[in-house]
Amino acid sequence: MDIKNINKTRTKYKIYTRTLFCAYKILGMVMATPMKIIESLKVIDSRAKFMGIKLTMIRNLLEKYRDDKDLLKEVLKALRGSHLYDLVLEACPYLKDLENEILEEELTGHIESKIKKEEPVEGCILEGEVPIFVYMKEYLRKYYFKDNTPKIFYDIGKDYALFLEVKTFEEMENKIKKYFGNMRVESSEPLIIVIENNKECENCKATEPICYFTSGFIAGCLESIADKLYIVNVEEIKCKAKGDEYCSFKAKRVARLA
């Protein structure tokens, strides 16, 4: 190729490059929405034949909006899965951090939608100051657990008692006194345990027994004392929350494990 043709090629290349940059600047002056930015990116991608120039133009285009994170997030979301998405991240590596933020926001939004509070379900009425555990239980019943509340708190109470590894009836009595109230045995056959002034239903008013955690705790203690040879079921048959003088619990072995 002679010098004349080389110079002619260089001139065409310069004109081509200047034209692209002028088009980019004109588009940049009117862009303010994600879709307009994407349209400009498409123009750059289709007309810039050299990768270096293409990446430079993309970088310069997006750099103007670097402080507008919300706008750039919308652009990235719209470009996902496309050829332009890869080009944008290659031209502007800092946008990878922005993409990570988007993923975190989407994950958080998904989780929040799963645990979003539904219409409240009334349980017992709290009359005056109550222990924080009681308030928490009723809050979870009202907004989240609903009809599953008795089983969930029964299981928690039972699991906690097993975790404590209670070995004797005396130790069980001391634990119940510490966490709930004074305990006494009303009957041995069937086994009926009475708890005076149970903290689980302190200042509560209900139409049915509500000491689910206490019931599970007693069951767990009895299973632990029996070295987990039996499954024990405990039912609250009287509850101070519904007007009884005290809370009482009936225990029954329902299965032998060994």
Helix content: 55-70%
Strand content: 5-15%
Strand arrangement, major sheet? 2-3-6-5
Write the CATH architecture name of the largest domain.
2-Layer Sandwich
What structural category do the secondary elements indicate? alpha+beta
| Spans where pLDDT lies below 50 across 5 or more residues | 24-31
Shape: elongated
CATH class of the largest domain, named Alpha Beta
CATH homology-level superfamily of the largest domain:
Trafficking protein particle complex subunit 3
Described by strand count, sense and barrel closure, the largest sheet is: 4 strands, antiparallel
What value does the average pLDDT take?
Answer: 83
What is the count of helical runs? 10
